[in-house]
Amino acid sequence: MGSLRGLRLAAGNWLRLCERDASSSLRLTRHSDLKKNGFCTKPQESPKAPSHTYTHRVPLHKPTDWERKILVWSGRFKKEDEIPETVSFEMLDAAKNKLRVKISYIMIALTVAGCILMVIEGKKAVKRHESLTSLNLEKKARLREEAALKAKTE
């Protein structure tokens, strides 16, 4: 029981220190409209519109021939002639991601088709009574015969 009480005291002291640090950092802020309890209030005056306007321009990129093909294959544009002189990096990234997804779907379909083909071929081999064990036994028998013939001739 004594250790639990000490733990509570230590936690309480730590919380008081955190509250003190938080309240002192709130006092040091630039805003003068903070209440004593630490919550922000709405400003009394409406903020003035900035005198200058900041326009954010997205950097554009001149696509290479390969990137033009990617834009067409991804379905972003119908023909290479429709692609503008410069495109945004976001548009190019979106086209590349779409093409990656299409390629992964094609790979999944080819994998499933390959698995189905192997199952069909395996069933045909079973009907012909071919198995790895029988092929291996035939190969070993043939090698033994060759070794026996070779030993007779020597």
TrEMBL record:
Q: Which GO terms describe its biological process?
A: cellular response to hypoxia; neuron apoptotic process; positive regulation of apoptotic process; positive regulation of release of cytochrome c from mitochondria
Q: Note whether Membrane occurs among the keywords.
A: yes
GO CC terms, sorted: cytosol; membrane; mitochondrion
- Keyword annotations from UniProtKB, A to Z: Membrane, Transmembrane, Transmembrane helix
Cell compartment(s), UniProt: Membrane
According to its record, how does it sit in the membrane?
A: Single-pass membrane protein
Do you know which Pfam families this protein is assigned to? DUF1075 (PF06388)
InterPro entries, per this entry? DUF1075 (IPR009432)
**Segments traversing the membrane:** 103-120
**Chain residue ranges for the region called Disordered:** 38-57
Q: Is Transmembrane a UniProt keyword of this protein?
A: yes
Self-association state and partner proteins as the record states: Interacts with HSP90AB1; HSP90AB1 is essential for FAM162A mitochondrial localization and pro-apoptotic activity. Interacts with VDAC2; the interaction is probably involved in inducing mitochondrial permeability transition.
Q: Which family does it belong to?
A: Belongs to the UPF0389 family.
Task: Give the function comment from the record.
Answer: Proposed to be involved in regulation of apoptosis; the exact mechanism may differ between cell types/tissues. May be involved in hypoxia-induced cell death of transformed cells implicating cytochrome C release and caspase activation (such as CASP9) and inducing mitochondrial permeability transition. May be involved in hypoxia-induced cell death of neuronal cells probably by promoting release of AIFM1 from mitochondria to cytoplasm and its translocation to the nucleus; however, the involvement of caspases has been reported conflictingly.
Protein name in UniProt:
Protein FAM162A
What is the protein's species of origin?
Pteropus vampyrus (Large flying fox)
Specify the taxonomic lineage: Eukaryota, Metazoa, Chordata, Craniata, Vertebrata
